[in-house]
Design a protein that fits this description.
By secondary structure, chain A is an alpha+beta fold. Chain A has 22 helices and 47 strands. Chain A has 6 domains: 160 residues, Roll (Ubiquitin-like (UB roll)), CATH 3.10.20; 196 residues, FAD/NAD(P)-binding domain (3-Layer(bba) Sandwich); 104 residues, FAD/NAD(P)-binding domain (3-Layer(bba) Sandwich), CATH 3.50.50; 77 residues, Arc Repressor Mutant, subunit A (Orthogonal Bundle), CATH 1.10.10; 208 residues, Probable tRNA modification gtpase trme, domain 1 (Gyrase A, domain 2); 90 residues, Aminomethyltransferase beta-barrel domains (Elongation Factor Tu (Ef-tu), domain 3), CATH 2.40.30. The longest helix of chain A is centred in the middle third of the chain and has 27 residues. An 8-stranded mixed sheet of chain B has the order 6-7-5-15-16-17-14-18, sandwiched between helices. Classes of the chains: A alpha+beta, B alpha+beta. At the A-B interface, strand 6, helix 2, strand 13, helix 10 and strand 28 of A face helix 1, strand 4, helix 6, helix 8 and helix 10 of B.
Chain lengths: 973, 425
């Protein structure tokens, strides 16, 4: 395993120095940390501290840590970039959990946090040597080398595998659990910023039930890291949300996907202690998407150095966690957010050495790393500006524009459109009328304008929801056309012109998770990967942890530049679900796959039965010695629990019509009190199921099916009755769980049953083979029993009300003790049915076996008007029958049992196969069933069977399928 | 014939380009659309491109156009889970997929493009005695054909996949598995690009964004007619041979030529997780739990399942798929609960009645099909391309695909691969 080589050293790390109080600012008005609640955790094995409310990364940043991971390919040190969930350099391992978003996850006492992708340590990483040869490792370099000699490729591959990113998957199951919940809401609001909150409040005000989902731990969006005015508005809006009883707020939760008809997946994180995540599945009548905007990084040389971050990251660090991101900063700003970041930094005591204003045509060219000293390899030391000057700094903040996270809109069918004025993709006009957009995702405006728009949209969404519900309830649906249902969509928000900034004059990283640079992208485009989808697949750009939220637009811009097209012409990739990653645990929820148990299963287990998982059921395989069980049935009497057999109660005058259609044989003349064996085929003439059906009383039948086919037969019957013959007067009720079923088999079965059902005349003349009787058995009324013989013995199958099953089972054993009555399991039954040559559908037939191939010619009645599979079977017959035939087989060496599945061969040509084989305790030799080519199917032919070890042994084709009592004297006794 | 590339790929080439900073030559060109070709292939996926490549390389037929309505490899070739194996159930299937696997193994050097075939071994788990019996059946068929394939027990499974819960305390205890050591995974996009580049180097024209809107059939001579060419969104193309190498829309394309196919199209979904360090070497498949999983060289887990139970041309994803998939993966490897799904998607599968493909001639002279691949299309690409090229080049149906003709549905010679199909990836 290559994973074992990944180990972080425990030596003290200079970059994980003890908490540096100098980085933590004096209390900020909007801070989310609780300074009265310090917490201890470990970072790469070293103690670290933070406060409640800190994220892992804010706590570490407050202690002076600047590097949180190494990059995928070149193992370059990576620091904070966005200080939010999608921060690509801040994925860490927390205890057993890999890929934890360290810039989002709140720190908890005792957490063991470590860096990923670094060996032997974060500070000194040997794979960083890749940086030296980076120029040779362009995108897709692996496609161009290691080609020859091919025998060496596995060795190269094992090296490549060591570069797999991410943390370590846990080897032990977690003790935490996961949960699911259904929700039905009128309006689901995705995003709890000012517009989202306003929409929720407005919708609730007119009576809608609202679910308001916010990705972060508190409502507020960008108001939270704003100034006094924003904080005041935040308090006001939160109060309004709190005062609205119709709003359910889910924080630290994210709407991950929208499926057809507003089936919404909402991932709720840290629900309660012990429940790690919960998947809320919400059917929302309308959805308001208020996901805001994501700040876009700028592409320039050195843009991934620790110390280079986005303006929102700087503002969040300062205002939410009171962390000073640096001491000397250069701010590159193209918008008000950048200016605000500069002001915040200044306020936090950071020296702003230069404000580079993109709106005045100023630019930054490259970020320079420290060449010596403690900061070596780990951070920024200076910035080269567009005018050629070099400014020393340890913090570079960029504010060059936004990406609209349109994922949920795309999942609703919309395609984003590039707007050159706003320099970003914006929602198109392809939304269904049940999905609304508001806030920054839609357009620009002051906070007040966003709030006003949010309110309008919230009201419209509530009204539309109301109209949709009314329409669904209304009986005269014809009157409800879609377009008259509800008010018009509020006018979209305007856009404010924004400089179009994507890449500087230098090349830098476009995809931080994947280590893909603008130079790589241009090279790939020039090489012919000119479609954005091809570019993505070839370079892996946007395929990392943020799935393009930070990277896509820059990648498209670089591709547009490389191909001489506009960004609009270049287009964008399809955003696929989920918007944010979802754990397998949350998706799975609590495992709920109950096992079906017959009323006697407890008894079986108490008496040493080996359990057999048979589809939905647990059954007794055997009680220790299946061959002894066989001998006992053949000489005395045995009982087997056959409760899982499918049972359908059929009532009504037209049941014979149904039976005639389903089964290949004739059913119109089945007398009351009689039972018949039948085989069902699909439309393709392939054997589908078999079983017996009994005529219990006037217009009353019970059909039995195989255990595994019970559900499929019920579905077929319901399908026939619902679609093909709705005019038939038939009620069908599955009654598998209503009856416990026990087969009493063996020469003494008549004597045994006689003792428990004294009023039932069991004499062969009165109750013959293939008949059914209602009965009182062991004092239990409401039973019925039929005489059939899967085992080949005289046998009665008892069907008793399920709650009395155990009583009857024990009564049979008690009463039959002197007769040698003993239980037998599935294995003994299989041996006996094989001795008798009875086929098991699915074992002795496969997905192409026609009723003729399975040796059921005697059953098929082509003269019937119609039955399922008739045309196909007629067609098989017309062409001279099937190509292979089911036959009885006996190895010439009777001590040898060729395993089921072995092939019959002539040289290297396959001429058949063994479907069933066992040692027969009754005959004292091995026996089998199998298919052979028709030309070999005559009795006495000897064919070679190839054993698993490659040797061959001869087997003889028998005259009958039955190896034992082919005349059926015993079961007719 | 060997492909003549403007520049061959090699370690030395990487070094030279690294030093000079020069661009690599175009992986394939963007030629003008001619009005006439010898062969028009519809669908620029692995089947269409492999067919074009083998036509040129083996049969010297280079006046060939591959047309696609989207970009190269954007359909099933880019959406599958890239699993390769040859442990099929029928002798026909085994022989065919073994040929494909052979071609795949040597594809990197044949195409001078590293397709990153990763031999991992392939485990098909059995959770009940009936599937264990089918595994034995498959193993025995495979061994007759000389394919490395064997049934192994829970201890051996645990050794190969330490994360697997092989205890008997689970809902569906693992009783054994069919182990097929030559199976593995491959970089599917690289296969497509490699074929495209090699075909292009012979002069084959690849036309992306060229949707076929009609097929011209001349019915004057006979009852079912002869193909004359295709209509595309960029104008008509005449050709005496037209090959339908599409998936998802195979029956619609064939209908343009008046050829009906017994195909029902179902969506097939897949998903991928975030990467973690390598821990899963073999490809693991469970039919009972309807799931298959492999870990790529990048560290991601790639998941797939059975086709959706309804017919549709929609490629939308569903939440139910992820929920069921996750539940089943955790039954196999319960410690993976904290791993996260990063992305889900869907593709289309053309299902035939016997789960085997349809290759060869149709009642319309000159109109050939290479379709109906169900969930097996990607694995089959090289062998199918080779066979179709051979059919065009020699006029004779290769023995390897003789059983997969369209006429078998009229003659009752079905090739039942269903037993290997229930999530048999």
């Amino acid at each position: 395993m290559t994973g074992t080589s990944f180990r972080l050293e425990d030596r003290p790390l200079r970059n994980a120095a003890p908490p540096n109080p100098g980085r933590r600012l004096d209390p900020r008005p909007g801070e989310v940390i609780d300074r009265s609640a310090p917490l201890s955790f470990t970072w790469n094995g070293r103690p670290a501290q933070g406060f409640e409310g800190d994220t892992i990364v804010s706590a570490l940043a407050a202690s002076g840590v600047r590097v949180f991971s190494r990059s995928l390919k070149y193992h370059r040190p990576r620091g904070l970039l966005t200080a939010s969930f999608h921060d690509p350099g801040c994925l860490v391992q927390v205890d057993d959990e890999p890929n934890v978003r360290g810039a989002h996850r709140r720190v908890e006492a005792g957490m063991r946090v470590s860096a990923q992708n670094a060996w032997p340590s974060l500070r000194f990483d040997v794979k960083a040597a890749n940086q030296l040869v980076g120029r040779f490792l362009g995108p897709g370099f692996y496609y161009k080398t290691f080609i020859a000699p091919e025998r060496l490729w596995p060795a190269y591959e094992s090296v490549l595998k060591r570069f797999a990113a991410g943390g370590r998957a846990s080897a032990e199951p977690s003790h935490d659990s996961y949960d699911k919940r259904y929700a039905h809401v009128d309006v689901l609001v995705a995003g709890g910023g000012p517009a989202g909150m306003a929409a929720a409040v407005a919708a609730a005000a007119v009576g809608a039930s609202v679910m308001l989902v916010e990705e972060e731990y508190e409502l507020g969006g960008h108001l939270r890291w704003g100034g006094k005015r924003e904080l005041d508005l935040l308090a006001e809006q939160r109060a309004a949300v709190d005062a609205s009883p119709g709003i359910e707020v889910l924080t630290n939760s994210v709407v991950t996907a929208r499926y057809d008809d507003n089936w919404m997946a909402v991932l709720q994180r840290s629900v309660f202690p012990g429940v790690r995540e919960r998947l809320v599945k919400a059917r929302a009548t309308t959805v308001v998407v208020a996901a805001g905007l994501i700040e876009r990084p700028y592409v320039f040389a050195g843009n991934d150095l620790p110390g280079v971050m986005l303006s929102t990251a700087a503002r969040r660090l300062v205002n939410l966690w009171a962390v000073k991101p640096g001491t000397r900063a250069v701010v590159f700003s193209a918008n008000a957010e950048g200016d605000a970041a500069a002001a915040d930094l200044e306020d936090a005591g950071v020296e702003i050495t230069r404000l580079v204003d993109a709106r005045r045509g100023e630019n930054i060219v490259r970020a320079l790393a420290a060449r010596h000293g403690a900061a070596r390899r780990t951070g920024l030391s200076a910035v080269e500006l567009g005018d050629g000057s070099i400014v020393e700094c340890d913090l570079l903040v960029t504010a060059i524009g936004w990406t609209a996270p349109t994922s949920l809109l795309n999942m609703a069918g919309d395609r984003p459109v590039y707007d050159p004025t706003a320099a970003r993709f914006r929602p198109g006009d392809g939304l269904p009328d049940s999905v609304f957009v508001t806030g920054g995702l839609l357009g620009d405006g002051t906070v007040d304008e966003l709030v006003a728009h949010g309110s309008d949209v919230g009201r419209a969404a509530a009204a539309r929801s109301d109209a949709r519900s009314v329409r669904q309830d209304r009986s005269d649906r014809a009157a409800g056309a879609d377009d008259d249902a509800g008010p018009a969509r509020p006018a979209p928000l305007p856009v404010v012109p924004h400089p179009a900034l994507f890449r500087s004059t230098t090349h830098g990283i476009v995809d931080y998770s994947e280590d893909v640079s603008s130079k790589d992208l241009i090279g790939a485009a020039h090489e012919g990967y000119e479609s954005v989808e091809l570019l993505k697949r070839f370079t892996t750009v946007t395929m990392g942890s943020a799935q393009g939220k930070l990277e896509t637009v820059n990648a498209v811009a670089v591709l547009a530049e490389a191909t001489g097209r506009t960004i609009g012409e270049t287009g964008t990739t399809v955003w696929r679900p989920p918007y944010a990653p979802m754990s397998l645990g949350a998706l799975a929820g609590r495992q709920f796959e109950p096992v079906r148990r017959s009323p006697m299963q407890g008894w079986h287990e108490a008496h040493g039965a080996r359990p057999l998982v048979a589809g939905a059921w647990i059954r007794p395989d055997h009680y220790g010695d299946p061959e002894a069980e066989v001998r006992n049935v053949r000489t005395n009497v045995g009982i087997i629990d056959v409760t899982p057999l499918g049972k359908l109660d059929l009532r009504g005058p037209d049941v014979p019509l149904l039976l005639n259609l389903l089964y290949v044989n004739k059913w119109s003349k089945l007398a009351e009190g009689a039972v018949r064996y039948g085989v069902m085929c699909g439309d393709d003439g392939v054997v589908f199921d078999d079983g017996v059906t009994g005529h219990l009383g006037p217009d009353h039948y019970v059909m039995s099916t195989t255990s595994s086919g019970a559900e499929a037969v019920l579905n077929l019957v319901e399908h026939v009755l619902a679609t093909d013959h709705p005019e038939w007067r038939i009620h069908v009720t599955p009654v598998v769980g209503d009856y416990a079923s026990i087969n009493v088999a063996g020469p003494d079965s008549r004597a045994l049953l006689g003792r428990l059902a004294p009023e039932l005349d069991l004499s062969p003349g009165a109750f013959a083979y293939m008949q059914v009787r209602s009965a009182t058995i062991a004092g239990v009324t409401g039973c019925f029993t039929w005489r059939i013989g899967f085992t080949g013995e005289l046998s009665y199958e008892l069907h008793v009300p399920a709650d009395r099953g155990l009583h009857v089972w024990e009564a049979l054993l008690d009463t039959g003790r002197d007769l040698g009555c003993a239980p037998f399991g599935v294995e003994a039954q299989r041996i006996m049915r094989l001795e008798k040559g009875h086929l098991i559908v699915g074992q002795d037939s496969d997905g192409l076996t026609s009723a003729y191939a399975a040796g059921l010619d005697w059953l098929v009645k082509p003269d019937k008007t119609d039955f399922l599979g008739k045309p196909e079977l007629a067609w098989v017959a017309e062409r001279g029958g099937p190509t292979a035939q089911l036959v009885g087989l006996q190895p010439v060496d009777g001590t040898l049992v060729p395993p089921e599945g072995c092939q019959l061969v002539e040289g290297t040509t396959i001429v058949g196969r063994i479907t069933s084989s066992r040692m027969s305790p009754t005959l004292g030799r091995s026996i089998g069933l199998g298919y052979v080519d028709r030309r070999l199917a005559s009795a006495g032919t000897v064919v070679s069977v190839r054993l698993p070890d490659g040797t061959e042994t001869p087997v003889t084709v028998m005259a009958d399928l039955a190896h034992f009592d082919p005349e059926g004297r015993r079961l007719r006794a | 014939m060997k492909a003549r590339f403007p520049q061959r790929f090699s370690a030395w080439g990487l070094v030279r380009h690294g030093l000079t900073g020069d661009d690599w030559p175009k992986v394939w060109r963007s030629p003008e659309l001619r009005r006439s070709y010898d062969v028009v292939i519809i669908g620029a996926g692995v089947h269409g491109l492999a067919t074009a490549y083998y036509l040129a390389a083996r049969h010297g037929i280079t006046n060939v156009a591959v047309v696609d309505r989207g970009y190269v490899g954007g359909g099933g070739s880019g959406r599958n889970t890239a699993i390769l194996r040859s442990n099929y159930l029928t002798p026909e299937g085994v022989a065919f997929y073994d040929r494909s696997l052979q071609l795949y193994r040597n594809l990197s050097s044949e195409l001078n493009f590293n397709v990153m075939f990763s031999r991992r071994g392939h485990l098909t788990l059995a959770h009940n005695d009936s599937s264990l019996r089918t595994m034995r059946w498959r193993a025995e068929v495979n061994k007759v054909a000389g394919i490395d394939s064997e049934v192994i027990g829970p201890d051996e499974i645990k050794r190969l996949v330490p994360m697997m819960d092989t205890s008997d305390r689970t809902r569906y205890p693992i009783l054994g598995a069919l182990y097929h050591p030559p199976g593995g995974i491959i970089r599917h996009d690289a296969v497509v690009w490699g074929y495209a580049r090699a075909a292009d180097s012979f002069g084959v024209h690849i036309h992306q964004n060229t949707e076929v809107t009609g097929i011209d059939v001349d019915v004057s001579g006979g009852t079912t007619g002869r193909v004359r060419g295709v209509q595309t969104a960029r104008g008509p193309i005449s050709a005496p041979v037209v090959v339908n190498c599409t998936a998802g829309w195979a029956s619609l394309i064939s209908a343009m030529a008046g050829v009906g196919l017994p195909i029902i199209t179902h969506p097939l979904q897949a998903a991928v997780t975030e990467p973690v360090k390598m821990f899963l070497d073999p490809v693991v498949v469970s039919g009972t739990l309807h799931v298959y999983v492999s870990q790529t060289d990048r560290g991601e887990l790639v998941f797939g399942a059975s086709v959706d139970p309804f017919a549709s041309y929609s490629m939308r994803s569903s939440l139910e798929f992820l929920e069921e998939l996750a539940g089943h993966v955790l039954q196999l490897m319960p410690s993976l609960a904290t791993m996260r799904v990063l992305r889900q998607w869907a593709g289309l599968c053309d299902m035939t009645p016997d789960y085997s493909p349809i290759i060869g001639v149709t009642p319309v002279e000159g109109f050939l099909v290479d379709v109906g691949w169900g969930t097996y299309g990607f694995k089959a690409g090289p062998a199918a391309g080779e066979a179709v090229a051979s059919l065009i080049g020699t006029g004779r149906v290769p023995e390897l695909v003789a059983g997969f003709d369209l006429a078998r549905f009229d003659d009752g010679r079905l090739v039942g691969e269903k037993g290997a199909a229930a999530v048999g990836h």
